Amino acid sequence: MNATEPRRRWWPRSVRARTALAVASTAAVILAAMGWWVHRDLYRQSTQIATEQAVQQLLALNDQLREGVVPARASAVPYEVVATGRRTAVAYGGGMEDFDPGTHHVMPAPTGEGSPNYVRMPVNRDYTPGIRGDMAGEMYRVLAADIEADELSSDEVAALGIAADARLRVYVVVLPRAAEEITEATDRLLLRAGLVGLVLIAAIAYFTVRVALRPVEAIRVLTASVTASDPRERVTVPATGHEITALATTINATLQRLDNAAAQQRRFVADAAHELRSPLTTLLASLEVALAYPERTDWPAAVTTAARQTRRLQALAEDLLLLARLDTRAPAADPETVDLTALATRLTGEYPLTERALTLTCDGTAPAYAHGDPDAYERLLRNLIDNAARHAAHRIQVTIRNQDAWVVLTVHDDGPGVPTEDTERIFERFVRLDDARSRDHGGTGLGLAIARDLAHRHRGTLTLAPRTLGACFRLRLPRAPAPAGK
């Protein structure tokens, strides 16, 4: 067989066929167990009935003999009455005549050792087998009862044709053949009914699963038409409330997330293009004017403008690259333990405040440890301070506290603040508020988005705390134990 050729399997690939086969196999095991139980119980009950019938026949024969009456040959159960000192049977019937007991008795003569429980029937080749001819040569269970001749009157003894000191023994053969025939007939009936039942069960399971999977097939057809550029299709949710409903709901939620992600990606690309176009347009216009009128161009001013727009492009490109890394990179496997108090103190002491007269203070004396990447924490805190510096009027305050299992860091400025309806929108990418947080202050619109992504990557949160004056950004990070030796 070719190595690339797929191996053929006896197990069907279709879910409908697999389910039907599994259901039929399970039903076959159950039906076989039930059939075995019915077979055993029916055979036991039929054998018990045959035994009870033999016991009743034995009692009836015993009563007749004690009255000196020779039993009739017509009997539903084979029997034979033998006596000591007599070669032929006293009475017989129920099919024992097929063994010609008129010349000699079939059952053993009575002895003082008790009666046997099982007797093998003799084989007689000189007769034509009748209804019970197949008894020859087989071992059968027998029931027996003894009667002493001295218990009977002389007239009864004479009527039975036995000696005055003889012992009578009544044998009744227990025939399990009726039980066997009933059991065999029932087995054949159960086998036919079981086969028909298995076929019906498999067919019903197949078509039931086929009907049940129709919504799944509809979902498959619809989701096959969904593309990454246009994930607006939605599947129909069945009103039955079963598992297909949960599947359809989950798929619709997944498609909605894809739609949101695609819309966010398109918006991100459009915003990035717009952000890149603005400094490029300014830079290109400044250079074209300088080249068109070189003698009237203020070259220091033109170079300053070009440098400022280039720095803006550089900052935007760095932020875009950082966001791309944050979207694809997993958290660090071996995080370090960072003292956020020491980091905030160092950043506030080194932060340049040359453009405006601002007061930047850091309130935090006790060490505040958190697990993570020191560079990421520095970028997060620097973005928050940069955002506060662009909008503060006179003062920025950084506060660090240990609160139970958390490290809480806040950056508060006394600027115009943020409207309540925009407290979450400011963390979206390329979002700037119209008045207080305008593009003229030099931001890329990505600082707060990057800060929140970094907080989430370190299992923390970054929110805007309500304040009556200015904006207060609150960073919560899981607190880490102090390093050894500190």
Could you provide a short overview of the structure?
The chain is of the alpha+beta class and 486 residues long.
Task: Kindly describe this structure.
It is a single chain. This protein has 486 residues and is of the alpha+beta class. It folds into 3 domains: 11-212, no CATH class; 243-326, Helix Hairpins, CATH 1.10.287; 334-478, Heat Shock Protein 90 (2-Layer Sandwich), CATH 3.30.565.10. It is built from 9 helices and 12 strands. The strands form 3 sheets. The chain has a 5-stranded antiparallel beta sheet with strand order 2-1-5-4-3, covered by helices on one side. A hairpin with a 2-residue loop joins strand 9 (395-403) and strand 10. The two termini are 69 Å apart. 23% of the residues are buried.
Low-confidence stretches: 127-133, 434-441
Q: What is the overall shape?
A: rod-shaped
Count of extended strands:
12
Q: Write down the oligomeric state.
A: single chain
CA gyration radius, whole angstroms: 52 Å
Average pLDDT taken over every residue: 81
Order of helices and strands: HEEEEHEHHHHEHEEHEEHEE
Q: Into which percentage range does the β-strand content fall?
A: 5-15%
Number of helices: 9
Would you tell me the structural class of the helices and strands? alpha+beta
DSSP helix fraction:
40-55%
Main beta sheet strand tally, sense and closure: 5 strands, antiparallel
Q: Please, how many domains?
A: 3
Distance between the termini: 69 Å
Q: What topology, given as strand order, has the largest sheet?
A: 2-1-5-4-3
Catalytic activity: ATP + protein L-histidine = ADP + protein N-phospho-L-histidine
Main location: membrane
Protein name: histidine kinase
Keywords: Kinase, Membrane, Phosphoprotein, Transferase, Transmembrane, Transmembrane helix, Two-component regulatory system
